[in-house]
Design goal:
72% of the residues lie in helices and 0% in strands. It is built from ten helices and no strands. The longest helix has 23 residues.
């Protein structure tokens, strides 16, 4: 019997979910994600050995599952195995290509300063004292779209992973990553 950590709901029909994905049913992809994501993340993590990279692999794999669901053939194997092979191949391709999670263009010192400034921004106090502490960064943060600002604060003040932020703001992982990336770009432009 498999370890308790790998016991899943045996009543879940992976093949049926893949067929629904092939027909364009986004809820079916969500059900697959809810059923398997924690295990699939473990598979990716064991291969790429980096949490952020594993999360990216998982995201890319679910995009592939969605786009390739029509190619699943039950005569060639189990649906769950097909899903796991997509993740495994995505992780191996990432390792083979030497792709790594790249830091944003900011040097580490600037990121640390931005994190400290954002932490100060969230502290209690009136707007004038906050503005005095933050200078231009406060003005630039105020100029961001609320979703981008919220994602940046979750990332740099709360220390949340992209997945945790996606859960908090109830948005897709790829969208959250894009908001953070665009928010940082807008902050850099504003600070220049």
């Amino acid at each position: 019997m498999p370890p308790a950590a790998f016991v899943t709901d045996d009543s879940f029909d992976h093949a049926l979910a893949l067929e629904a994905c092939a027909r364009g049913d986004r809820d079916a992809l969500q059900r697959i994600y809810e059923q398997e994501s924690r295990y699939l993340l473990g598979v990716a993590l064991r291969i790429v050995r980096n949490r952020a990279a594993a999360e990216d692999v998982l995201h890319d794999a679910f995009v592939a599952i969605w786009s390739k669901a029509h190619s699943f053939d039950a005569a060639r194997g189990a649906a769950r195995g097909w899903i796991y092979s997509i993740v495994r191949h995505a992780a191996l391709n990432r390792v083979r290509s030497g792709a790594r999670e790249t830091a944003l263009d900011e040097p580490a010192a600037a990121a640390h300063e931005a994190s400290a400034a954002m932490a100060a921004w969230q502290e209690e106090g009136d707007a004038l004292s906050r503005q005095a502490q933050l200078g231009r960064l406060g003005q630039c943060l105020e100029g961001l779209e609320p979703q981008r600002r919220e994602c940046l604060l979750h990332a740099y003040v709360d220390g949340c992973s992209h997945s945790e932020i996606a859960a908090r703001v109830q948005a897709p992982l790829g969208t959250v990553k894009a908001w953070i990336q665009r928010g940082l770009r807008a902050l850099r432009e504003c600070m220049q």
